[in-house]
Amino acid sequence: MSLYEELVAEGSGADGTYVTVERGADHAVVTLSDPDRLNVLSAPLVVQLKAALTELTAAAEIRTIVLTGADPGFCAGGDLRMMALTEKGLRAEAGAADVWRWIRYEFGAVARLIARADTAFVAALNGAAAGVGLAWALTCDLVIASEQARIVPAFGRLGLLPEVGTSWALTRALGYQGAFAFYARGRHLTAEEAREAGLVHEVVPHESLLDAAGEWCERIAALPPHALTMTKPLLRAAADATWDHSITMEEFAEPTCFTTEAFQGQVKALLNER
After folding, report:
1. Extended strands (E) in 153-197
2. Which domains does the chain have, with CATH numbers?
3. pTM
4. Which residues have a Cβ under 8 Å from the Cβ of 76 and sit 6 or more positions away?
5. Per residue in 23-43, pLDDT tens?
């Protein structure tokens, strides 16, 4: 059995709940729930999270998913116990490719679910966010933070790279030099510093974090379903597109919106007001 297969089996066969899900009518709150270890990304937690998000993003009624952690931390990043096993994987037949499978098919799969699903994701940072946990948060469509949150760029001192989409998110928020300085300095950012840098949209009192996330879920749920479904991939694609490409995508997409009942209803209501 390969290292990747061992990790998946360990995650699938673990006793206990490492991820909790609270479903509402149109949104869900997904909580990383291993607080004694600061929600470190153990095999059971990752496998359970991937399964939960796969199910939720396939549910048409769920418009928004809030991703948060059980206090006191959001996510401490990769499991050092698991990382120590990679030496075994490097000596195996598949070598580094076996480690790659875990990074791509488990860590990366969660990031791709967040980025590619029609569902909107709101990261609610309740404490320290590091490593792949930070990458997942930065992949979300919106990041809000409690005043107790911290952004922890730990990958440099561990000899790792910005991972699982972090390089993309950092360079777009901070620019090349800002992202390089963030990596090389390795200094923890407070929630307010992260907001000023553009990594976090909003900072709220710790006890109000989930209420603030819930308010964003309500705003998003108030949008016509087609508007969210079409706008999320449009905005994500525009981050890498030229101006000409972006305006062309908008020109092709907008006529579809004109044909929807939601738009026509709004037009009629405005005309009646006048």
Report:
1. 189-190
2. 3-221 (3.90.226.10), 225-273 (no CATH)
3. 0.89
4. 37, 38, 39, 40, 41, 128, 130, 131, 133
5. 999 999 999 999 999 999 999
